[in-house]
Design goal:
Elements: E1 4-10, E2 27-28, E3 31-32, H1 33-42, E4 49-54, H2 59-62, E5 70-73, H3 78-86, E6 93-98, H4 106-114, E7 121-127, E8 132-134, E9 137-139, E10 145-147, E11 151-154, H5 155-161, H6 171-177, E12 182-186, E13 213-226, E14 230-232, E15 235-237, E16 241-243, H7 251-264, H8 269-272, H9 285-298, E17 301-311, H10 321-332, E18 339-344, H11 350-353, E19 357-368
Parallel strand pairs: 1-4, 1-6, 4-5, 7-12, 17-18
Antiparallel strand pairs: 2-3, 6-11, 7-10, 7-11, 8-9, 13-16, 13-19, 14-15, 17-19
Helix pairs in contact: 5-6, 7-9
Bound molecules: cytidine-5'-triphosphate (CTP) and ligand LQXTBERG.
The site of cytidine-5'-triphosphate has 22 residues, from strand 1 and helix 3.
Length: 372
């Protein structure tokens, strides 16, 4: 039984990182960075509970990776994410780290744990060896400290300190503001925070993403409905019937979405856009695909190719293939040469052959985003 909980904050947007993938989702061989960081830290101390704070769009996906952690939905800011996570903490002490500090060494954790008990917050810091200018004046650099994470706090004090509308950039500043006691210990240059894209190269111990490929299939079927507009692959097909559906019924896009989600191991379209949700009534499927493509890139993948087969006795598909490919190429951010569209009839057999509806089968291949 331990009196310590670990919180790994992973709910950020990586706005300043400016890579195709969010930093928490870069693959270290086959492991997302957030999992790699969490596993490493969990081996450095005895934790009663490990909380992983996830972005609201990613929590469901994160939960697929490891059952041992408690996943909490983060907020709009680091502090909101902290507040949400602290609600799950029942131990006397809590250690909080940014996933962005990807290579924290064990020595830093030991330095924190060696001081546990007296002060309200224990903080790893670095001294500054460069000259420091503040408002154009050179100041005494001995008075300047660079604050890092993980930080070790008394849970109740941290909860109290963060019960405010004032935004703090770290836990120690919040505790300092309520006159809590702070103990500074030796941090490490290895604990550098990954903020801007090029800083990833300052972390040579992180292994590159594996060269694996991932495939997923998708199938969708929709029945015809008279008097509706028909959309296939985001293109309006001139027809006096469309598809019966909760959304705009773009059976092709739905099939591609499932193939992409399948390749990423991220479930299916219904988990992202439930057909019971009024929000998606009549939804433009192009926007749904856009959202999925953004998700696929955010969580560390690149699209290699897609191939799809439209099973339709009617309407004739060939005249629209070119437009559909162009539209898909735009939405997927994928060159046309990597998109293939095939069409076949049902030879007048089955529901396709009887002209009751259309089916589309897709296959998508993904690879990890190469950040190194
Ligand atoms: N709403 C937020 C914002 C940030 N964080 C986490 O707080 C840490 C420090 O944030 P930062 O390094 O700035 O990451 P991002 O917020 O993702 O980056 P940016 O500010 O560039 O968008 C990160 O581990 C980040 O995941 C969080 O959990 N919830
Ligand atoms: C918490 C922190 O890492 C301590 O140095 C830092 O303040 C986080 O800043 P960010 O702007 O949220 O990345």
């Amino acid at each position: 039984m331990s009196d310590l909980t670990l919180i790994v904050l992973c709910a950020g947007n990586s706005t300043r990182f400016q890579h195709k993938a969010k930093k928490q989702w870069l693959r270290i061989e086959n492991e997302p960075l957030w999992l790699n960081v969490t596993k490493r830290l969990s081996g450095f101390a005895q934790f009663e509970k490990i909380i992983v704070t996830a972005h609201k769009n990613e929590i469901g996906y994160m939960q697929n990776f490891d059952d041992d952690y408690t996943y909490v939905t983060g907020g709009e800011t680091r502090q909101e994410s902290m507040a949400n996570s602290l609600k799950e903490v029942t131990t006397k002490y809590v250690m909080v780290t940014d996933v962005a500090r990807a290579c924290v060494p064990k020595s830093v954790i030991d330095n924190l744990l060696n001081e546990k008990g007296v002060d309200d917050c224990i903080v790893p810091v670095l001294d500054v060896s460069d000259t420091v200018i503040y408002n154009e004046n050179t100041i005494n650099r001995d008075n300047v400290k660079l604050i890092q994470t993980p930080q070790l706090s008394k849970t109740e004090i941290l909860k109290k300190a963060l019960n405010t509308t004032t935004e703090f950039t770290d836990d120690s500043s919040a505790i300092n503001a309520i006159n809590g006691s702070i103990k500074y210990v030796k941090g490490s240059i290895k604990s550098k925070k990954l903020t801007h894209g090029d800083e990833i190269h300052d972390m040579p111990s992180l292994k590159p993403a594996s060269n694996n490929f991932f495939t997923g299939t998708g199938i969708d079927i929709h029945q015809f409905e008279d008097g509706k507009k028909m959309y296939l692959g985001g293109v309006e097909i001139p027809c006096d019937y469309g598809f019966k559906a909760h959304s705009d019924g773009d059976v092709l896009i739905h099939s591609v979405i499932d193939a992409l989600l399948g390749a990423a191991g991220a479930g299916d379209i219904g988990e992202f856009f439930p057909d019971t949700d009024p929000k998606y009534k009549g939804a433009d499927s192009k926007l749904l695909l856009q959202e999925i493509v953004e998700f696929i890139y955010n969580v560390g993948y690149e699209i290699v190719n897609i191939d799809l087969t439209i099973l339709a006795q009617q309407p004739k598909i060939n005249p629209f293939k070119k437009d559909i490919k162009k539209k898909l190429s735009e939405i997927l951010a994928l060159e046309k040469q990597f998109i293939n569209i095939k069409a076949t009839t049902g030879e007048k057999m089955g529901f396709v052959g009887r002209k009751e509806g259309v089916a589309v089968q897709s296959i998508a291949t993904l690879k990890y985003y190469k950040w190194k």
